[in-house]
Design goal:
single chain, 216 residues, mainly alpha, 10 helices, globular
């Protein structure tokens, strides 16, 4: 079991990294802009579930295989990028085609049910090889051989990263909701609400597919 000092240090580092703007933040914001804060919260929960998959893979040692297998890494990266672009194009094309919400079955303004947003978000995170690489590179730095089984320590650190990301993503969802409200109060801007959300997703997909050398 990691020491209290190690847990405090790791949690602080994880919070700083989660606060820093990144693809997951923009993804949650795009969902919130499109369908409100509830959709943003659901997207955040989906990303968290996807993150837990990477935690399990890291503990099992499979993420290391992805990290050191260029072919596997590229396949996963481009699958994730293509999926983001696909979601973005669908959102963009749906602009102005709002449907009537069904109480208890839909999220936000009735465009997508919560279950669908949740599943899409899980897939987005699972297909993000950067998350796998992050866990492989970051978590082992805090493992202490004298503190017990490495697998247990990795699992604890992975859970901390996942849980600490939730309040950060929730704040992003609320910010996106506020932006969406402003768009709705301005008719001209409101018409491009879905286009904004879709463009963010497409941009994320293109960014994910960009050569690593250009991203530092």
């Amino acid at each position: 079991m990691p020491t209290l000092e190690t847990l405090i240090l790791f949690t602080t580092a994880a919070m700083v990294l989660n606060i820093s703007p990144g693809p997951s933040n923009f993804y949650v914001m795009s969902r919130s802009i499109s369908q409100g804060w509830r959709a943003g919260f659901v997207a955040a929960a989906g990303l968290a579930l996807g993150s837990l998959v990477h935690v399990a893979l890291t503990v099992a040692g499979l993420s290391a295989l992805i990290a050191y297998s260029p072919t596997g890494y590229l396949i996963l990266k481009y699958l994730g990028a293509a999926y983001l672009v696909y979601l973005g194009v669908r959102t963009f094309m749906a602009a102005g085609a709002a449907t009537t919400a069904t109480v208890g079955a839909e999220v936000g303004n009735g465009k997508k049910p919560a279950r669908r947003i949740l599943m899409e978000s899980v897939v987005v995170e699972v297909l993000n090889p950067k998350t796998a690489l992050f866990f492989v590179a970051f978590l082992p730095q805090f493992v202490d051989p004298a503190a017990g089984p490495a697998a247990l320590q990795l699992a604890i650190f992975g859970l901390i990263v996942t849980v600490s990301a939730l309040p950060c993503d929730a704040a992003v969802a609320l910010a996106g909701h506020a932006a969406a409200d402003w768009m709705k109060r301005n008719p001209i801007v409101g018409r491009i609400q879905d286009r904004v959300s879709g463009s963010i997703l497409v941009g994320l997909g293109l960014w994910a597919a960009w050569p690593d050398a250009r991203r530092g």
